């Protein structure tokens, strides 16, 4: 199936990029569906106004933000894995949730860590109210909130330090919404895991559910591991290396394959009258 041509967003001047860095909330308006950003970079001499500026292209990694891309993913998975093809036929295709700004999504992921969904939602709602609203959840605002103030809305001292470290890395330019959108998967993984409190599992969830990256395999996620164990009839939960080997056939759409592992575990839990665990319950947002 042919995919539609990628859309482009024009960033015309350095001042625009500067504005994005100074006010990260504006970068939430960047369309995640775009595949490329065209950035004007003038190489002409300053005293020669007759020369046209040259353009360089910043490639944005492929995402699952369009139905044709999801259709292509499902077609690939059906053709490469008969067992997964049977599972795909019993569930509707993945539906994408709207994307928030990367900073907001990462802040939310920190708050939600190791908490039941209901409790996490309650704390997150109070945290947003403390900032003002979701558009006000920006690095400068979060840095202005003391650990004591965050504690009043249910954020632990440890998570407050994580939120401050994330905010500091955005404020100093180490990270930005724009750079996160354009980084390749490996670079993004390395950069985000350097933030206090953000480990491999959190990065994988962020890449799948917030950025809609198509080829992420969360080898440490309990739900995905249980799904692979069930789908292939394994005696034990597969370890990371075994997960990589078994799911290699899903490339370059391992995110979608993982999504169906959650669906498989969810269906089995319902059949057995059990609620999914915190790590299993990752269906929201995708």
Put the structure in a nutshell.
Keywords: DNA damage, DNA repair. The protein is mainly α. It contains 14 helices and three strands.
- Sequence stretches where pLDDT stays below 50 over 5 or more residues: 1-22, 24-53
Approximately how much beta-strand content do the residues carry? 5-15%
CATH architectural type of the largest domain? Orthogonal Bundle
The global form is: globular
The CATH homology group name of the largest domain:
Hypothetical protein, domain 2
What is the β-strand count?
Answer: 3
**Count of separate structural domains:** 3
Q: Average pLDDT value?
A: 82
Distinct helical segment count? 14
Please bin the fraction of helical residues. Answer: 40-55%
Q: What is the CATH third-level topology name of the largest domain?
A: Endonuclease III, domain 1
Order of strands in the sheet with most strands:
1-2-3
In whole angstroms, the N-to-C terminal distance is 22 Å
Structural class: mainly alpha
CATH C-level label of the largest domain: Mainly Alpha
Spell out the helices and strands N to C: EHEEHHHHHHHHHHHHH
Q: Indicate the radius of gyration in whole angstroms.
A: 21 Å
Task: Tell me about the largest β-sheet.
Answer: 3 strands, mixed
Q: What would your notes on this structure say?
A:
There is one protein chain. Strands 1-2-3 form a three-stranded mixed beta sheet. It is mostly helical and 286 residues long. α10 crosses α11 (200-209) and α12 packs across α14. α1 (14-22) links the parallel β1 and β2 (36-41). It contains 14 helices and three strands. The chain has three domains: 8-59, no CATH class; 67-96 and 216-271, Endonuclease Iii, domain 2; 102-208, Hypothetical protein, domain 2 (Endonuclease III, domain 1). Mean pLDDT is 82; it is low at 1-22 and 24-53. It has helices spanning 14-22, 67-80, 82-88, 102-112, 117-131, 139-143, 147-152, 157-171, 177-182, 185-192, 200-209, 222-232, 240-246, 254-271, and strands spanning 8-11, 36-41, 54-59. 34% of the residues are buried. It is 50% helix and 6% strand.
């Amino acid at each position: 199936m042919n995919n539609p041509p990628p859309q482009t967003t024009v960033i015309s001047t350095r001042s625009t990029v500067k504005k994005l860095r100074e006010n990260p909330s504006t970068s939430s308006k960047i369309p995640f569906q775009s595949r490329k950003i065209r950035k004007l970079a003038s190489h002409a001499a300053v005293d020669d106004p007759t020369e046209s500026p040259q353009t360089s292209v910043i490639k944005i990694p492929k995402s699952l933000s369009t139905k044709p891309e999801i259709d292509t993913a499902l077609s690939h998975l059906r053709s490469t894995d008969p067992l997964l093809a049977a599972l795909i036929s019993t569930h509707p295709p993945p539906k994408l949730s709207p994307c928030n700004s990367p900073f907001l999504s990462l802040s939310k992921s920190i708050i939600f860590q190791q908490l039941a969904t209901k409790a996490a939602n309650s704390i997150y709602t109070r945290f947003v109210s403390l900032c003002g609203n979701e558009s006000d959840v920006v690095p400068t605002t979060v840095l202005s909130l003391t650990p004591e103030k965050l504690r009043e809305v249910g954020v632990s001292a440890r998570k407050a330090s994580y939120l401050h470290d994330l905010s500091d890395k955005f404020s100093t330019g180490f990270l930005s919404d724009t750079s996160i959108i354009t980084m390749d998967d490996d670079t993004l993984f390395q950069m985000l895991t350097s933030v206090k409190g953000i480990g491999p599992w959190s990065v994988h969830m962020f890449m799948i559910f917030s950025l809609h990256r198509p080829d992420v395999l969360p080898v440490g996620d309990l739900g995905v591991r249980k799904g692979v164990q069930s789908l292939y009839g394994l005696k034990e939960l597969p370890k990371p290396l075994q997960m990589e080997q078994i799911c290699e056939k899903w490339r370059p759409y391992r995110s979608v394959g993982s999504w169906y592992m959650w669906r498989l575990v969810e269906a089995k839990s319902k059949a057995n009258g059990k609620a999914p665990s915190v790590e299993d319950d990752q269906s929201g947002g995708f």
